[in-house]
Amino acid sequence: MESGKVTRIVVIGTGFVGSSYAYALVNQGLGNELILVDINQKKAEGDAMDLNHAVPFGAPMRIWAGDYADCKDADLVVITAGANQRPGETRLDLAGRNAQIFRSIVDQVMESGFNGLFLVATNPVDVLSYATWKFSGLPARRVIGSGTILDTARLRHLLSGAYRVNPQNVHAYIIGEHGDTELPVWSHASIGVRPISEYLKQGIGPSREELDQIFVKVRDAAYHIIERKGATYYAIAMGLARLTRAILNDENSVLTVSTLLSGEYGLEDIYIGVPAVVNRSGVREVVDLNLTEEERKKLHHSAEVLTRVLKNIL
Ligand SMILES: NC(=O)C1=CN([C@@H]2O[C@H](COP(=O)(O)OP(=O)(O)OC[C@H]3O[C@@H](n4cnc5c(N)ncnc54)[C@H](O)[C@@H]3O)[C@@H](O)[C@H]2O)C=CC1
Ligand SMILES: CC(=O)C(=O)O
């Protein structure tokens, strides 16, 4: 058998999100070694067995339930471990509990000799991406949070319905905290090649008020899903797989990830969701948009809220 380059992905936390992401990887043939780690070893073993039985239907992949030593040769360690929100809880309510879990996880990953990229999805994702960067000592470009990729997908889905256009042709972004203070960047939103501001001027498609209602649905989507089925996982799993593809294929794709700002948007020393170019080295650069005054104020408010939480937990 010919031996090619092995790409190893370790998923830490095989709950709803981690196992859905692992399934997305198998389905999309991303990576050729997939290792599942969970404090609940039996769950990781069960998932590995189940996923291995899916491999004959897809691309070859080696999958096993492993431990932190397996991170040594990993290209990507994806953290989806920790508490999720109970109905009525905000993502920020999880900060203290999940930061403690992250201290032990990131320490153990680094002790293995890991030298790849971290991808973080656990909430509050901006806070925990920052914590992972601090705990690991890795360059910030190699610690990426899923940021507002999911919120951006939710916005594209709803705008796709409102304008009756394929979501692939909806270019609109949510930035800021992945949470209650996030904001839509209407000033840079377009449907196909036409800015939304032109549609508004011409009275085509949703009114300003209807766009505001669409944003509220995006912002509150997780609450509505959690109230109905206890957790959200399929969409974030696809989002994480999308990010994985951008990294492994060295795509230089623009995605709204949580990354360290060092002066962009007038902000520093904060992980927050912004459009950034993602490739094999991680975050190549932040796209520093020229926001309106109102958008900038909202982004700064979001950053202030995150900074307050960070000060409490680190
Ligand atoms: N960034 C995003 O857009 C999204 C983030 N999330 C977040 O993802 C996280 C996971 O959510 P779910 O999968 O629904 O939760 P879950 O409870 O189903 O899974 C969490 C898993 O983490 C494991 N775990 C806990 N402590 C651990 C440790 N110290 N080491 C290893 N494994 C450990 C648990 O055994 C469990 O299997 C939550 O924080 C949730 O809020 C969920 C959806 C979207
Ligand atoms: C749970 C969560 O963060 C989400 O679905 O957006």
Descriptive report:
- The chain is of the alpha/beta class and 314 residues long.
- The protein folds into two domains: 8-145, Rossmann fold (3-Layer(aba) Sandwich), CATH 3.40.50.720; 148-311, Alpha-Beta Complex (L-2-Hydroxyisocaproate Dehydrogenase, Chain A, domain 2), CATH 3.90.110.
- It has ten helices and 14 strands.
- A six-stranded parallel β-sheet has the order 3-2-1-4-5-6, sandwiched between helices. The chain has a three-stranded antiparallel β-sheet with strand order 7-10-11.
- Helix 1 links the parallel strand 1 and strand 2.
- Helix 1 crosses helix 9, helix 3 runs parallel beside helix 4 and helix 4 (125-136) packs across helix 10.
- The protein is globular, with a radius of gyration of 19 Å.
- Bound molecules: 1,4-dihydronicotinamide adenine dinucleotide (NAI) and pyruvic acid.
- Pyruvic acid binds next to loops.
- Pyruvic acid is lined by residues 91, 123, 150, 222, 232.
Topology diagram in text:
Layout: E1 8-12, H1 16-28, E2 33-37, H2 41-52, E3 62-65, E4 76-79, H3 95-111, E5 117-120, H4 125-136, E6 143-145, H5 149-163, E7 170-171, E8 174-175, E9 183-184, E10 190-191, E11 194-195, H6 196-202, H7 208-219, H8 221-229, H9 234-248, E12 253-262, E13 268-279, E14 282-286, H10 293-313
Parallel strand pairs: 1-2, 1-4, 2-3, 4-5, 5-6
Antiparallel strand pairs: 7-10, 8-9, 10-11, 12-13, 13-14
